[in-house]
Every structure is written in C-alpha cells, then in structure tokens.
Amino acid sequence: MTSATAGGTAPVPPARTRKSVTGTRRTVAVLFLLPCLVLLGALVVYPIGYSLIRSFLNQSGDGFAGVDNYKALFTDDGIRTALKNNVIWVVFAPTVATALGLVFAVLTERVRWGTAFKLVVFMPMAISMLAAGIIFRLVYDQDPHKGVANAVWVGVHDTFAESSAFPNAHPGRQSPLRPEKGGFLTQQAVHAGQSVSLPLVGVAPDKMPGGAKKAVQAPSEPGKVTGTAWQDFTRGKGVGRLGQVDPGELGYPGMKIEAVKDGKVVDSAKVRDDGTFTLSEKADGAQLRLPASNFREPYNGVDWLGPSLVTPAVIGAYVWMWAGFAMVLIAAGLAGVPRELLEAARVDGANEWQVFRRVTVPLLAPVLAVVLVTLMINVLKVFDLVFIIPPGSSQDDANVLALELYRKGFSEDQPGIASAIAVFLLLLVIPVVWFNVRRLRREVRR
Q: Which residues does 149 contact at the CB level (< 8 Å), separation at least 6?
C-alpha cells in the first residue's frame, strides 16, 4: 500500500504486534498466565464471591436473611469471645514475636555461634502448626511428670517452699489427736518426762518418704517431752496393735511438732527418720500440735490451659514458632545498616543501649513494620494452635474467629453465619494488606 506525498509515494510500515515490557508478546504472556489466573479465580475469587452471597442467605440457603447473619457477629456470645481474643492476639503476638526477633538478630551478630543459634531459633518454622500444637499440648500438661512447663515451675517452687510428704495423713481410731485449723492437736496437755505417742494413718506405703526408717518408741527423758509420730498400720488382718509401735511400721521423718500454750507456740521440733522427737522443758504443760503445713497438698503447678491462662499459653506457642521468622527478616535488614553510623555513635560516647535504641531501631523501622504487619495478617487467621492446644473444657475461652468460623460452618450447621465471619475476617485483613503493599512499593521506589 502507498500514500501520496509531496515528493511521491512512501510505503506505510506494517502494524506492530504489541509487546510487554520484557519484550514478550502479550498474547504469549497471557497464555502462560492463564493457568494461574484460572486457579486464582477458582481458589480465591470464587470462594470470596460465594461467601459474600451466602452470608446474606438463611441457614438452608434458599431464602434471603438480610443482615441477620452479620448481627449475630455482635450478639452471639461465642463470636464476641472470639473477637475479643483476636484483639488480644493482634496486639500481643506480633509485638512479642517481633521484639524477640529483633533482640535475637542484634545479639547473634556479636557471638561466634550466631549462625547455629539462628538455626535453632528458626527450626520451629519447619514444623507444621498441627505438630507444634501437639507438642505444646504436652508441654502445658497439668501433671508435672508429663508437662515440661509445670515440671520447671514446680521445681522452682519447691526450691523455695518445700511441699509436704504427708498430705493424706490423719489420726486413726482411738487417737489422742483431734482436728484443729487444718492440722491436729493433742486432746490432753503433756508433761516433762513423758513419752507421747502420735499415731497417724493414711499414707500409702509407696508414698512414704525415702528416708523413713522403722519407727521406735521414744524413751522418756527427765525434763523433756519425747514422743513418736509414725504410720500406725501394718499390712495383714489382725497384725499389729492399735496405738502402739509395731515392727515394720515407719516413722514420719521431717514432720513438724509444736508445743502450744494459750494459743502460742513455746517450742517446736522435727521428727527424726525413726519417728522420734524431743521437746525441751518449755513444752511442759503444753498441748502438742501437728500444724497444717505437715498436710498441705503438694504443689501441682499452674493450670496453663485453664480459662484464665489458655490464650496467653497458646500465644506463647505461636511466638515460639514465629520468632525465628521475625529474626531472619530483621537480620537481613540489619545486614544493610551502615556500620559507620553505629561506630560514629559509639565514638560520640553513646553506650550500647543508646546505640540500639537511637540508631539501630530507627534504621530498622521499615523492616520492623513489614514484619509486624505480616504477623498481624497471620494471627488474624490463626486456627490450628487454638484448635489443638486447649482442652475441650477451655476451648471456648481460647476461641478465635477462624475457629468460630469452623464451628459455625461444620459443627453447628450455620453456613450463613460462618460466611459472615469469613467476610468479616476478609474486611479486617484488607486494610492491613493494603498498608503492607503500599509500604513495600514505597521501599521499591527508593
């Protein structure tokens, strides 16, 4: 084809095929992207659209319910508890994980084995949420012999406050003792030169202290009050004499004995391994008391998965998993911080805390923001840990929106309310995602 010009005719160049910025033809690019677009539409766009429509329908799905499903978000007790717990999660879990990641990233730069430490801290990321939930369900077990958390807690507690070895001990028949303020008191006063028998029962043979020896009847001593506190029980029918020390019966080592006059303790002693004890002449005319501390139940630790602590306990499991993620990203940002600025601050007289607070943290602010926002998005949809770690008795107290969505949709057969929760979660996540994308684009432009 030709066109007329002042100087004659000139050929018209053929139309060019439009190309992308990478030089690839747009049609080819679309063909390569088509499978991804189809999957994105099937797995993301369609579920979002369907959930939005379903949230306005009734339970059976054949009638319009209006905004009734959304009203349930603020009137249903379970959903309100889940919403409150989600606020706690969003406020504390990302903050603690990011703070720990920052501390780990800064400190590991100063040690030779920093790489090994980072590997250990990051390793939980290789574990699935399901496996982590099972692990921490065992960690938080109430029994100190099974749960690591309570084993440590009980060990620390017993270091400073020794627990009793005789929580179930009590007087038997025809005993000279009577109950008194959680302990036991002799019915009659004792006198110097007297040997007192304090028989008790109720401690299983396999629960007796390891240092317990065969009990002996304490001999009387002039000017002193002596006695024996022992397990007045011998296996076998008709074996043993009630109220008397028999062969094979064991003493109560470590049990505390107090001499009380007019409500005041005038003397005290501890029972020896063979059950005997000795009080001074101050005990003359006093009543003997076995205080309640002898029979205190052993400390069994903290109820980590009880109603009051279950949410912080689950958050602790989450932080254990994701602190390594925060550490790696912050360490990458820290590697790009100019060392000259840090050295200049030190030369100007700043100590390490001032360098960290006034130089390192401000320079890492963009990275910290990205990590914090990413973790906030992650905790908004946390499900696995809350589903696995809390026992059935306290799962309602640990409830979150993602778990309540599962309950409404599958356990309670209320798909309309479940869809409303899903849409509500999407609306919560969108501003955070938008903020994160906007910040990332700003960083790229720089």
A: 139, 140, 301, 302, 304
> Token pair 């990275």 is at which residue?
367
Q: Confirm if 416 and 405 have CB atoms less than 8 A apart.
A: no
Chain center to CA of 181: 36
Helix H or strand E encompassing 412: none
Handedness of CA 20, 24, 30, 34 (dihedral sign): negative
Give the H or E element holding residue 316: helix 310-335
Give burial (CB, 10 Å; 0-12/13-18/19+) of 221: middle
DSSP codes, 47-109: HHHHHHHHTTB-SSSSSB-TTHHHHHHHH-HHHHHHHHHHHHHHHHHHHHHHHHHHHHHHHGG
Report how far apart, in Å, the C-alpha atoms of 140 and of each of 137, 143, 298, 379 are: 5, 9, 18, 21
∠ CA 365-371-372, rounded to 5°: 85
3-state secondary structure of 11: strand
Question: Tokens 């030190």 appear where?
Answer: 346
* CA separation for the pair 78, 73 (Å, rounded): 9
Domain boundaries, the chain: 22-54, 68-152+304-445, 177-295
Strand order in the sheet with 225-231: 195-200, 225-231, 276-279
Alpha-carbon separation of residue 310 from 157, 294, 313, 335 (angstroms): 21, 32, 5, 38
With both helix axes pointing from N to C terminus, report the angle between 129-139 and 148-160 in degrees, rounded to the nearest 10: 30
* Six-digit token string for 86: 């989600």
- Using a 10 angstrom Cβ sphere, with 0-12 exposed, 13-18 middle and 19 or more buried, the burial of residue 142 is middle
pLDDT (0 to 100) of residue 240: 65
pLDDT of residue 248: 83
Say what the pLDDT of residue 66 is.
Answer: 86
CB 291 within 8 Å of CB 183: yes
Q: Which residue stretches of the chain have pLDDT < 70? A: 1-24, 162-163, 236-240, 446
DSSP assignment of 146-164 equals T-HHHHHHHHHHHHHSPPP
pLDDT of residue 23: 58
Tell me which CATH code domain 68-152+304-445 carries: 1.10.3720.10
Map tokens 């003493």 to a residue: 251
The identity of residue 428, as a single letter, is L
Extended beta strands in 271-418, E state: 276-279, 287-290
pLDDT for position 4: 47
